[in-house]
Amino acid sequence: MTDTLTLPADEDGIARAAEMLLAGRLVAFPTETVYGLGGIATSGAAVAGIFAAKRRPQFNPLIAHVADVAAAERLVELTPIGEKFAQAFWPGPLTLVAPQRAGSGIADLAAAGLPTLAVRVPAAPVAQALLAQVGLPVAAPSANPSGKVSPTTAQHVLDGLGGRIAAVLDGGPCPVGLESTIVGLGRPEGPSLLRPGGLPAEEIEAVLGQQLSAAGSAITAPGQLASHYAPDATIRLNATSPEPGEVYLGFGAGPADLSLSDTGDLIEAAANLFAALRSLDAHGMPIAVAPIPQKGLGRAINDRLRRAAAPR
Ligand code: TXA
Ligand code: MG
User: Fold this and answer.
1) Beta-bridge partners for 289
2) Cα 118 to averaged position of ligand 1 atoms, centre (Å)
3) Would you state the pLDDT for residue 56?
């Protein structure tokens, strides 16, 4: 056990976090989507430490975070359509999976030995400042123990990983609240949606001029694991009201123990999702969840809820 430092997200805190990362230590940091558990992506030892801290059962590939599009291009071949996506959506809640360049310097373990690499340029100012100071790609999965709900506050990170990582940079709650949308590039059938997330697929499809293809069966992203993002409580979906003995997570008008959004706003609901699951989980009762419309960010919310509800 080490004591996990909580660093304020000011100039000194960010400088300290950058130093710790460069010294090979693990530091959780806020992005606009969720908190990431950062380690230098070119260091096999740091990347191995990430898997150990999360107690990930397998070496699932990680996302390399960089400060700008130019840094991303040094790691992967974005392809022409990938460059269009990068111009349209970076910095932002989009991850692109593309063929890795020879000499990227990325530790093999970070990409789990795959020829492709997932890359993201986050928009949150604290993440931007940190990545600019570090000057190297930072591998960062969501900063939660494997299989658990992603953290959207520094306290969530401490609840799950306190004592197992060097520090958490506290930048307050994450505004998007859902992990990034992941798009796969460089496949003959065209760009594919590997994971719905904080950037609505419709916005990507507007730039693409057609629908994203569905994820091919060749991809084994753990986001695809049937049971993932799981609270301890069992979850019942599309519940228009709670049964006796259940707590109710609402959406829109109507009584609820907690509501994702009183006004039925999907953006607000996404931002509240993981914190709401954590707080209802603390009651130790089954959770019934109101129906969420399957459009915009609702697609990603429903994807996370289905995984949280899957039998384990
Ligand atoms: O918003 C996010 O994406 C957050 C923040 C911290 O950036 N990160 C995140 O990382 O959600 P993680 O490790 O929890 O999820 C990354 C997903 C995994 O499902 C992984 O399998 C997939 O990305 N992935 C990574 N590299 C891949 C690759 N080369 N091919 C296919 N999937 C990949
Ligand atoms: Mg995760």
Assistant:
1) 249
2) 7
3) 76
> What average pLDDT score do residues 283-291 get?
96
Ligand 1 contact via 95 beta carbon (within 6 Å)? yes
Q: How high is the mean pLDDT of the chain?
A: 92
Q: What is the pLDDT of residues 118-177, one digit of tens each?
A: 999 999 999 999 999 999 999 999 999 988 999 999 999 999 999 999 999 999 999 999
Number of H helices, E strands in the chain: 9, 15
Ligand 1 touching residue 75 (CB < 6 A): no
Residue indicated by tokens 């419709």: 202
Among all ligands shown, which has an atom nearest to the Cα of 92? 1
Residue 140 CA, closest ligand 1 atom number: 6
* DSSP code per residue over 205-249: HHHHTSPPEEPPTT---GGGSSS-S--SS-EE-S-SSPPTT-EEE
- Ligand whose nearest atom lies closest to the CA of 147: 2
pLDDT in tens, 6-30: 999 999 999 999 999 999 999 999 9
| Alpha carbon of 245 to ligand 1 centroid (Å) | 36
pLDDT of residue 189: 84
Query: Does ligand 1 have an atom closer than 6 angstroms to the CB of 106?
Result: no
